[in-house]
Amino acid sequence: MTRRREPIIEKRLIYRSQPFGFDKSMLAGILSVARRNNPRDDITGALICRHDLYLQLIEGPAPAIDALYSRIQADDRHFDVRLLLEEPMGVRLFPGWAMLDDEAPSLFWSAQDVEAGALETARPDELRAPFVRLSKARPAGIG
Fold first, then answer.
1. DSSP string, 55-73
2. Which phi and psi angles does 24 have, rounded to 5°?
3. If you compute the radius of gyration of the chain from its CA atoms, what whole number of angstroms results?
């Protein structure tokens, strides 16, 4: 009897959180762990960060994405974690990046906009836009 393999469902999600005590060493730690673990789990993505906000896109197999998001929700370096977009994925935006980081030049929203809830009311294309721009500026593993 041959076992049928279930198709791999790829997933993309974008979430936001607030850093707890943001500094360069904390960011370096987050990136180091992501760059070590994400290839193992076939996860790619990008983290846009600044002192008041983490905005992250992660993409890969649905079970791996769900497990990673659960770990992020439990991570004490983040608070007020909010899922903004969850969708099936076709083509990856960051195929060569275990985790690309960008310290906010790609971000479209001001601190005041974020505080007023602009991310929670943004359309999916608006949420994807800074990541699309970042993926074009820093293609697969360059930079």
1. EEEEEEEHHHHHHHHHHHH
2. -60, -40
3. 15
Asked if residues 41 and 63 have their Cβ atoms less than 8 Å apart, the reply is no
Q: Which residues 6+ apart lie within 8 Å of 94 measured at CB? A: 44, 45, 46, 57, 59, 100, 131, 135, 140
**Residue range 7-40, pLDDT digits in tens:** 567 999 999 998 877 778 878 888 888 889 999 9
% of the chain surpassing 90 pLDDT: 48
Tell me the whole-structure pTM to 2 decimals. 0.87
Report pLDDT digits (tens) over 113-130.
989 999 999 999 999 999
Q: Scan for tokens 């790609």, then name that residue.
A: 106
| C-alpha separations of 106 from 40, 46, 48, 92, 137 in Å | 27, 11, 7, 18, 10
Task: Pull the structure tokens for residue 15.
Answer: 């979430």
